[in-house]
Design goal:
about 240 residues; five-stranded mixed β-sheet; alpha/beta; 8 helices
Length: about 240
């Protein structure tokens, strides 16, 4: 089996259609990036992009991992509000709320290959403090994802939150994130800074500390592929 991981979309219908049309029969597709709150695409385009992914997820054609910008509209406003909020977008998404909450896969963990897929990453300090292991990570993250007061929704101070460090929906890869040695992580959410740039393309997918940061689609179109048979990661276009 091959996995395809798609980074922060932010309303780009062209990329969304391309991915679904080209890879739906050959890959298990994961959308792990923000679909709305774009400064580049119109609100109508953003909503249409979200609908494409929503309908694909409902028909089991992709896995849709929720993100802070979607929870901007779906979660409690005093907890989940973030930059980019737009009242017009909010009005468009009201009638989609239940469908979205029903289809979300809050995280994905491949236990055999020890790969964790979230929007922003699970940092080492949370792993250590809550004694998270390969055997209990799914149980803990599932419990957290259904509790808006849990570490899953923590917003660190580097993202203007009140918590010491961000959780899997909000962790800043540049200023907060540190991985542990038994886990490979795939995330988006944060553009890389030069001190963590390990990929040879300035604006492409970045690899550092057993972590792939795929927040690159607004700069260059790259996707991350994982082959479960060969256990190899490949960057593709």
């Amino acid at each position: 089996m091959k996995y395809l991981f798609v980074g922060d979309i932010h309303g780009d219908i062209t990329i969304t259609e391309y991915v679904l049309n080209k890879f739906e029969n050959t890959h298990k597709i994961f959308f792990i990036g923000d679909l709305v709150d774009s400064f580049q695409f119109s609100i109508i385009e953003q909503v249409e992009c979200l609908l494409l992914v929503l309908e694909a997820a409902e028909h089991k054609k992709c896995v849709y991992i929720p993100v802070n910008h979607e929870f901007n509209y779906l979660g409690p406003k005093d907890i989940c509000r973030c930059s980019g909020f737009n009242s017009v977008t909010d009005a468009h998404l009201i009638h989609l709320k239940n469908r979205l909450l029903n289809v979300f896969t809050y995280f994905y963990f491949d236990k055999e290959n020890k790969i964790l897929v979230t929007h922003a990453g699970l940092t080492k300090s949370l792993i250590k403090y809550y004694k998270i292991t390969v055997d209990n990570i799914e149980e803990i993250l599932t419990k957290w994802s259904h509790d808006y007061t849990s570490p899953f929704y923590y917003i660190g101070r580097s993202r203007f939150g009140k918590d010491d460090i961000g959780g899997p929906l909000w962790c800043d890869w540049n200023r907060e994130f540190e991985n542990c040695n038994w886990l490979t992580q795939i995330l988006g959410h944060s553009s890389a800074l030069s001190n963590k740039e390990k990929h040879d393309k300035k604006f492409g997918i970045r690899y550092f500390d057993q972590t792939y940061n795929i927040d690159c689609l607004l700069r260059t179109i790259e996707f991350l592929e994982f082959d479960t048979d060969t256990q190899k990661f490949t960057i593709i276009h």
